[in-house]
TrEMBL record:
Positions bound to substrate: 97, 107, 135, 224
Heme recorded as keyword: no
Keywords: Amino-acid biosynthesis, Branched-chain amino acid biosynthesis, Cytoplasm, Leucine biosynthesis, Magnesium, Manganese, Metal-binding, NAD, Oxidoreductase
Stated role: Catalyzes the oxidation of 3-carboxy-2-hydroxy-4-methylpentanoate (3-isopropylmalate) to 3-carboxy-4-methyl-2-oxopentanoate. The product decarboxylates to 4-methyl-2 oxopentanoate.
Domain of life: Bacteria
EC number: 1.1.1.85
Cofactor: Mg(2+); Mn(2+)
Ligand binding (NAD(+)): 77-90, 282-294
Taxonomic lineage: Bacteria, Bacillati, Bacillota, Bacilli, Bacillales
Name of the protein this chain belongs to: 3-isopropylmalate dehydrogenase
A GO molecular-function annotation: NAD binding
Amino acid sequence: MGNYRIAVLPGDGIGKEVTKGAVEILQAVATRFHHQFEFVYGLIGGEAIDQKGTPLPDETLAMCRQSDAVLLGAVGGPKWDQNPPHLRPEKGLLAIRKEMNLFANLRPVKFYDSLIDSSPLKAEVIQDVDLLIVRELTGGLYFGKPSGRHVEDGEETVVDTLLYKREEIKRIVTTAFELARKRRKKVTSVDKANVLESSRMWREIAEEVARDFPDVKLEHMLVDNAAMQLIRNPKQFDVLVTENMFGDILSDEASMLAGSLGMLPSASLSTSGPSLYEPIHGSAPDIAGQNKANPIAMILSSAMMLRLSFGLHEEAKAIEKAVQQVLTSGYRTADVARNGQRIVSTKEMVNEIKATILDDGAILNIMAVYA
Ligand SMILES: NC(=O)C1=CN([C@@H]2O[C@H](COP(=O)(O)OP(=O)(O)OC[C@H]3O[C@@H](n4cnc5c(N)ncnc54)[C@H](O)[C@@H]3O)[C@@H](O)[C@H]2O)C=CC1
Ligand SMILES: CC(C)CC(=O)C(=O)O
Ligand SMILES: [Mg+2]
């Protein structure tokens, strides 16, 4: 039995709905495996702006730092779209990633047999896809200074800067190699080295790191080609490692290999403090408040938390197995439902996964009694 303190940041829009679902799933895991999970709640994003006047209140950050791990829903929404840059919900997300040194964002893309019809792609292209996008999360184009607008010689000018220190590239590429070593031993480093100086340095560093991993194959791929190859032949990939914005875009694209943006979890890892777990999707204002969102990306993110932050492998597997079982039984939220399949709500999907986790536990207990 373990005691864990989990900071929960629901955020905005569907972030709130899917986070509520993930907490219920974790409570079921705690019941089945006799753990104590203490959930502490904090504000981030739009709601934090409304209540505290800032997208990342100090108390939220302090609470996260004092927890064993953080679960985050999503932030943003049209209500705040016209706010000045420092009062945009997304600033809160970028700030927590930077402040907590969450430099490695792991975005696994896994194919589910039962969702074969949910992807617009052909079965033979997506069947057995199992790849991992390793996205650099605290540097690159989303953080470089200068960034902003100004008027120069009477002309309105805007700038964003793609900036990396050598060590920042080295640590994310090394993380990718370490992960590939435990998988199919191939790293695809994605860049735009035909144009960008930052990419040329990225490539150079990837080559240097590769020397320490002779058992892992390194290939380089330009990002535009990578976007195409993900659709043409995704099975060629094992681990992809790339700059912050490239990884952001490629992972939304890759989510369709799994059938929906609502299926992809992620882990935002730090080596100097607690890590954070978040679905790859946003706050989905178009479906927010309608009990329609697919909670699986968030639920699978909580499984990643159990495995990577707490070392609770069996518990993580119990969640993943329940998700698989529920999908196999035909439960579908609207985003993955096809051909007249019955559609379930967010809450129904959560309830079914929860029941499966608890039932599985009960069956195993009965088997243990009669063994
Ligand atoms: N991690 C975060 O907090 C992120 C926040 N955002 C913010 O979210 C807001 C909306 O951005 P969008 O570009 O619309 O991206 P989005 O990821 O929120 O939604 C894109 C599309 O996917 C659908 N979708 C997303 N998650 C889903 C789920 N779990 N189940 C079913 N359908 C789902 C939405 O309904 C929408 O049609 C913006 O304010 C944006 O800045 C966007 C991405 C990540
Ligand atoms: C604020 C954005 C960088 C959020 C996003 O799209 C993501 O992290 O995937
Ligand atoms: Mg994104």
